[in-house]
Design a protein that fits this description.
Layout (H helix, E strand, L loop, with lengths): L3 H16 L2 H18 L6 E5 L5 H7 L4 E6 L2 H11 L5 E5 L14 E6 L9 H12 L2 E11 L5 H9 L3 H4 L8 E5 L2 E5 L4 H8 L3 E9 L9 H4 L3 H13 L12 E8 L1
Parallel strand pairs: 1-2, 1-4, 2-3, 4-5
Antiparallel strand pairs: 5-9, 6-7, 8-9
Helix pairs in contact: 1-4, 2-10
């Protein structure tokens, strides 16, 4: 798994470089379009969030009336999230490495486990397979596992780096090994997993319910500077992705994809 210090450093710039940008807002809106149907219930859900980062999603789910245990491996990320939550009564925080789910300070099982924007890309294939075994033990039968993951064949990334005459970077995701990826001023060791690979890892304990692209036409966040003054064009791309290109198989070629699994 990536070093904690890398996430600590990234915490200071994460909201400015992603959450608060037009691209970040658009990608998160796409995630919420698929997440919200599971949150719009008459009962309060018990939700475990992994890799909560700066707490944007924890606050969103808590404001829907659900109880959130928000976890992260970085104490700096957690401190940022705590400040953002402003002591929200529905949110608790815990420092947690996702490879150590047995260290959770709760005994009851969860209705939903959620991980957004590549948190699970920070663990190796061996750890990823073991993760699903451990996660299934923390989830109620019939409960949902929802994650947003980066695949290996992002078309935006290939096009961008080919234009910059960097063919090695254009195909950098398409490897089984971990590579170092810049997040702010930090480098995070990252692995990429296509939807079928993730579904295979989860197959013993979970049923696949949905796979959709997040960022097939909406570009990756490192293109924020280029699109900063092209908000109308960005909105058009978001509209196209929502209305014309929501097909599940495109998740393999997007910046991220959302996968929804049900505990057997």
């Amino acid at each position: 798994m990536a070093t904690v210090s890398g996430f600590d450093t990234a915490a200071a710039v994460y909201d400015a470089s992603f959450t608060q940008t037009e691209i970040g807002k658009m990608q998160r809106k796409r995630v919420y379009a698929y997440l919200e149907p599971y949150l719009n219930t008459t009962t309060s859900l018990n939700i475990l969030e992994l890799n909560c980062g700066t707490g944007e999603d924890a606050l969103f789910m808590a404001n829907k009336g659900h109880s959130i245990l928000a976890t992260d491996v970085s104490s700096v990320m957690l401190n940022t999230a705590k400040a953002k939550s402003n002591n929200h009564p529905n949110i608790e925080f815990q420092l947690l490495n996702i490879n150590n789910l047995d260290e959770l300070a709760v005994s009851e099982k969860f209705d939903l486990i959620f991980s957004n924007f590549g948190g699970l890309n920070c663990i190796s294939p061996k750890e990823f397979q073991e993760f699903f075994t451990n996660a299934s033990g923390k989830l109620k039968r019939g409960g949902q596992f929802i994650a947003v993951i980066m695949p290996k064949k992002c078309l935006w990334e290939r096009f961008y780096y080919l234009l910059k005459a960097s063919p090695s970077k254009a195909h950098r995701r398409n490897t089984n090994g971990g590579i170092k990826v810049e997040v702010g001023e930090s480098e995070i060791l990252t692995w990429y997993y296509d939807p079928k690979e993730t579904a295979t890892f989860a197959g013993k304990s979970f049923r696949r319910r949905l796979i959709k692209p997040i960022g097939f036409l909406i570009p990756p966040s490192y293109l924020n500077a280029f699109f900063k003054n092209k908000k109308v064009f960005l909105k058009f791309l978001a509209w196209l992705e929502n209305r014309i290109f929501p097909f599940g198989f495109l998740g393999t070629y997007a910046d991220h994809y959302i996968i929804i699994l049900e505990r057997k």
